[in-house]
What does this fold into?
Amino acid sequence: MLCSLSLVLCGLLAGTRADPGGLLRLGMDIMNHEVQSAMEESHILEKMAAEASNPQPGGKAIKGLSNMKVKDVLEPVITLNFVPGVGISQCVSTGMTITGKSFTGGNMEINVVLNITATDRLLQDEEAGTPVFRSEGCEVILVSVKTNLPNNKAINKFVDSTLRKVLPGLMCPAIDAVLEYVNKKWAKLTDPMPVDKMGTVKYALTSPPATTASHIQVDFSPVVQLQEGQLIQLATDGSLPEFPEGSAKDSQLLLSATFLTAELALLQKSLEVKLKDKR
Ligand SMILES: *[C@@H]1O[C@H](CO)[C@@H](O)[C@H](O)[C@H]1NC(C)=O
It folds into this structure.
């Protein structure tokens, strides 16, 4: 009787959550750093500018403007905000100078300051099990447009509407390219990490990552494996880790006792070997 009761209880507990391992809370501090460095490492805006200056066959050009070149791309200012239940809203503020020969034959220069906005939806990759960002609803907002042409309403309107047509196709791929960088970092989370030659630890997501007003919460379960391939079982009766109420906005990592125990078991093996070596 007691036996079957405990089986039922175990079943219930296992159903609520598998292997309590750890909780990772990513705050704005980490997300800002990740997106900023992705933007810098990918040199994406400069690449976009170079591409615009050398349009591929079939690529879009600005009508009425030949010899188009994009130069002096301003250092982007990136603003991120958490959107609960969705992911992150991303705004990249930048500017650039577009030069070319205008339809009247003169040299034309357009200084444009713009915001690229998009929603980065946080999903779980079905196959790899890692979190992934996908961008949605990219828009380019013109903050200011200045030209060296005479201040003429018709010309201003032409430039404005042309930019509105051309810029999204030019700038929105930048958002996707940055996310690709960030997603690659997520993917590394599930790569096995060696622990002192004795074995490896890797992380598996136990539920889709969740976005709150102040964090992205990643709920994971570690798989601790010995070099010979044997898995170290995590006890399933450990208490679930919980963050203290109203805790800081910065990133935090919470590891369960069961996880630490498993990881210690791995280190203990490694210590045994070292002690034996000494003899
Ligand atoms: C452009 O983005 C900046 C920074 O997020 C913001 O302060 C500004 O209001 C935005 N401008 C427009 C026109 O949306």
Summary: Residues 1-18 have pLDDT under 50 and may be disordered. The helical segments are 2-16, 28-42, 44-53, 153-189, 257-278. Residues 101 and 107 are 5 Å apart (CA to CA). Residues 79, 91, 93, 115, 141, 143 surround 2-acetamido-2-deoxy-beta-D-glucopyranose (CB under 6 Å).
